[in-house]
Design a protein that fits this description.
This protein is of the alpha/beta class. The chain folds into three domains: 312 residues, ABC transporter transmembrane region fold; 164 residues, P-loop containing nucleotide triphosphate hydrolases (Rossmann fold, 3-Layer(aba) Sandwich); 78 residues, Rossmann fold (3-Layer(aba) Sandwich), CATH 3.40.50. The chain is built from 20 helices and twelve strands. The protein binds adenosine-5'-diphosphate (ADP) and magnesium ion. The site of adenosine-5'-diphosphate has 12 residues, from strand 1 and helix 11. Adenosine-5'-diphosphate binds next to strand 1 and helix 11.
Length: 589
C-alpha cells in the first residue's frame, strides 16, 4: 500500500490534468447508469404501453447517452495514459540520475545487466500500474457505484440478494492477488537475469567465441528464458482464473434474482421494464467487478517491479557530500594520507596504516605485487572509495569535507582499460569540457601524440569511434584517453597501469604522450615500466595493504628487501634505457 502510494505520488505534478480526466470518467460512469435506467421506459412505454412519443424520444436518448460516453472515454483515456507516461518518464529520469551518482563501489558489486533491467523492464511494468490501472480503477469503480445506485434504486431488496455475492468475490480477488505478487516478483527477477546474460555475452563476445562457448551460452540463455516462461505461465493461469471464477460466483446471484424477480413480476408487484432494468444493471455490474479484479492483478505485478525500482532509488550513496561541503581550491601544497585504512569487506583490510605525504609536483611510483592495494589506494584520492579509517587530505583539508565535484575536477585518471564513448573523436577528447574550442582539442591531441592518426581517419576529428573505440588500436585508444586527460588539465594525475595492456611499440608512443601529460603535475603512477619507476621522485612499495618500503630507486636497491626482489625477478637483464617490462604484472610469493 505504502509502495503504491509512493508510486502514485509521481502523478502529483499532473493533478490538474488528473482532475479533468476524472470529470470525464464521472461522465462515462454516469452513462453506464443511464443505459441501465433507460431500459425500463423502453420496455414499459414502448413495448408494453405502445406509447408513440416514447418511440420517437427514447432511441434518440440512447444515441445521446452513447455519444457522451464515447467523448468521455476518449478524453479520459487519452489524458490518463499521457499522465501515466509522464509519471513513468519522471521515474526513469530519476533512476538514471541516481545511477549516475552511485559510487564506483556500487557498480563493482553488481551486474550491469541487472541494473539495466530495472530501468528498462521494471519501469515498463510499472507504466501499466500508473496509467491504465489508475484509469481502469477509477472508471470501473465509478461505474460500479453508478450501477449499484441503479440496482438499489430499482429494488433494494432484490439488490441485497445480488450484493451478497460481492464479499465472496472480494475474498477471492484478494487471494489471487497475493499469489500473483509472488509470481510477478519472480518473473521480474528472471527477466533481469536474462538482461544481465545478454549484456554479459554481448560485451564479452570475443571470449565466448574464442572459447567456442556459443552453444553453452545459447543453452544457458534458453534455460533462463524457459524459467521466465514458466513464471509467466503461472501469472497467466492466475490471471485467467479470476474472471471465470468470478463469473461463476455471479451466476448464483443472477439465478437467485431471476427466481425472486420472476415471482415479483408474475404477482404484479413490479413491471417487466423495472425488472429488466434491474437485471441489465446487474449484468453490467459484472464488467467493472471483473475488470477491477484484473486491475488488482496488474497492481500486484507492478508492485513487484516498483519494489525493485525503489530499492535502487533508495540505495544509500556510499559516497556522500556533507551539507556544508565547500569547494576545494586548486592544489597548492600537498596530498596526504593520514593513517589510512580501507576494507571492502568488514574485517579484511585491503589497506591499513597508510601514512604518506606527497608534495605538489612530486611524482610517486607505486609498486608492489598484484593485490597489494595499489588501485585501492589511488581510488581513495577522487573518493571513488572512502577510507574506512584515517583521512586523505588535500592542502590539509579532508577530502570528505569538500564537494565531490570540485575535488574530482582537479584529478585526472588514466587506466589500463580505456573507455571511449560512442561519439566523435573530438567529443571524446573534450569530454567534460563542452566549452573547449577546436584548437584546444587539436593541441591536446598533438600533446598526446594522437593528432597524426586522428587526421588519417575518414572524418578526422569528426570520426565516430565505436562503443569501446573498437576501430582503434589499444595504443591509439590510450592516447585519446591521454588527450582527454590533458584537456581536463588536472593538478593531480593518477595512472593505473596505463600502458600495461600495450605492446612495446605502442607503449613507446603512449609513454611519450604520458611525459607531456605528467609535466608539472602531482602524479601517482602505478608503475609498470622501469624507466617510470626510476624517474619517479619517490617509490612506494606496497605489500598486503601496507607500505613496506619507500625511497628512491638507488636507496631501495641498496636496502635490499621486497623492492630489490621485485626488481630482480622482473627486470633481470633489462637496462633502464630499454625499459618496457611490466612490473605490475609481477607476482611475488
Ligand atoms: N571490489 C572489491 N571488492 C572486494 N575486494 C576487493 C575489491 N577490489 C579489490 N579487492 C581486494 O583488495 C585488495 C587490493 O586490491 P587492489 O587495490 O586492486 O590491488 P592492486 O591494484 O595492488 O593489484 C586485493 O586483495 C583485492 O582482492
Ligand atoms: Mg590494480
Amino acid at each position: 500500500m505504502e509502495l503504491y502510494l509512493r508510486l502514485l505520488s509521481y502523478l502529483k505534478p499532473y493533478g490538474v490534468r488528473f482532475a479533468v480526466a476524472s470529470l470525464f470518467m464521472v461522465a462515462v460512469s454516469a452513462t453506464a447508469g443511464a443505459a441501465a435506467l433507460i431500459i425500463e421506459p423502453i420496455l414499459d412505454n414502448i413495448f408494453m404501453s405502445k406509447d408513440q412519443s416514447s418511440l420517437a424520444l427514447l432511441p434518440l436518448g440512447v444515441v445521446v447517452i452513447y455519444l457522451v460516453r464515447g467523448i468521455g472515454r476518449y478524453f479520459a483515456s487519452s489524458i490518463m495514459q499521457a499522465i501515466g507516461q509522464l509519471a513513468v518518464r519522471d521515474i526513469r529520469n530519476e533512476l538514471f540520475a541516481k545511477l549516475q551518482r552511485l559510487s564506483v563501489g556500487f557498480y563493482q558489486t553488481r551486474q550491469t545487466g541487472q541494473i539495466m533491467s530495472r530501468v528498462t523492464n521494471d519501469v515498463t511494468v510499472v507504466q501499466d500500474a500508473v496509467s491504465i490501472v489508475v484509469y481502469d480503477f477509477i472508471r470501473e469503480s465509478l461505474t460500479m457505484i453508478a450501477l449499484l445506485g441503479v440496482v438499489l434504486y430499482r429494488d433494494w431488496k432484490m439488490a441485497l440478494v445480488a450484493i451478497l455475492v460481492i464479499p465472496l468475490s472480494g475474498g477471492l480477488i484478494q487471494r489471487l492477488g497475493r499469489s500473483l505478487r509472488v509470481v510477478a516478483k519472480e518473473s521480474q527477477e528472471r527477466m533481469a537475469d536474462m538482461t544481465a546474460m545478454l549484456h554479459e555475452t554481448c560485451s564479452g563476445i570475443r571470449v565466448v567465441q574464442a572459447f567456442g562457448m556459443e552453444d553453452y551460452e545459447i543453452d544457458r540463455f534458453k534455460k533462463g528464458n524457459q524459467e521466465y516462461f514458466e513464471t509467466v505461465r503461472r501469472t497467466i493461469v492466475i490471471n485467467e482464473l479470476s474472471s471465470p471464477l468470478l463469473e461463476f460466483l455471479g451466476a448464483f446471484g443472477i439465478a437467485g434474482i431471476i427466481y425472486y424477480g420472476g415471482s415479483m413480476v408474475m404477482s404484479g408487484e413490479t413491471t417487466v421494464g423495472a425488472f429488466f432494468s434491474f437485471l441489465t444493471a446487474l449484468f453490467m455490474l459484472y464488467a467493472p467487478i471483473s475488470k477491477l479484479s484484473r486491475v488488482n492483478n496488474k497492481i500486484q505485478h507492478a508492485m513487484a517491479a516498483a519494489r525493485r525500482i525503489f530499492e535502487l532509488m533508495d540505495t544509500p550513496p556510499s559516497i556522500t557530500e556533507k551539507p556544508d561541503a565547500v569547494e576545494i581550491s586548486p592544489l597548492k601544497r600537498s596530498v596526504e594520507f593520514i593513517d589510512v585504512g580501507f576494507a571492502y569487506d568488514q574485517g579484511k583490510n585491503a589497506l591499513s596504516g597508510i601514512n604518506l605525504s606527497v608534495k605538489k609536483g612530486e611524482v610517486i611510483a607505486l609498486v608492489g605485487p598484484s593485490g597489494a592495494g595499489k588501485t585501492t589506494l589511488v581510488n581513495l584520492i577522487p573518493r571513488f572509495l572512502d577510507a574506512t579509517r584515517g583521512a586523505v587530505l588535500i592542502d590539509g583539508v579532508d577530502t570528505r569535507d569538500v564537494t565531490v565535484k570540485s575535488l574530482r575536477a582537479q584529478i585526472g585518471i588514466v587506466t589500463q582499460d580505456v573507455f571511449l564513448f560512442h561519439d566523435t573523436v573530438r567529443n571524446n577528447i573534450a569530454y567534460g569540457r563542452n566549452d573547449a574550442d577546436f584548437e584546444q582539442v587539436v593541441s591536446a591531441a598533438k600533446a598526446a601524440y594522437a593528432h597524426e592518426f586522428i587526421v588519417e581517419m575518414p572524418n578526422g576529428y569528426d570520426t565516430v569511434i565505436g562503443e569501446r573505440g573498437a576501430k582503434l588500436s589499444g595504443g591509439q585508444r590510450q592516447r585519446i584517453s591521454i588527450a582527454r586527460a590533458i584537456m581536463k588539465n588536472p593538478a593531480i594525475m593518477i595512472l593505473d597501469e596505463a600502458t600495461s595492456a600495450l605492446d612495446s611499440e605502442s607503449e613507446k608512443m603512449v609513454q611519450k604522450a604520458l611525459t607531456n601529460l605528467l609535466t608539472g603535475r602531482t602524479t601517482f603512477v602505478i608503475a609498470h615500466r622501469l624507466s617510470t619507476i626510476i624517474n619517479a621522485d619517490r617509490i612506494i612499495v606496497l605489500n598486503k595493504g601496507s607500505i613496506a618500503q619507500a625511497g628512491s630507486h638507488e636507496e631501495l636497491m641498496a636496502a635490499g628487501g621486497l623492492y630489490r626482489r621485485l626488481f630482480e625477478s622482473q627486470f633481470a637483464g633489462e637496462t633502464p634505457a630499454q625499459g618496457g617490462a611490466a612490473l605490475s604484472q609481477m607476482e611475488v610469493e
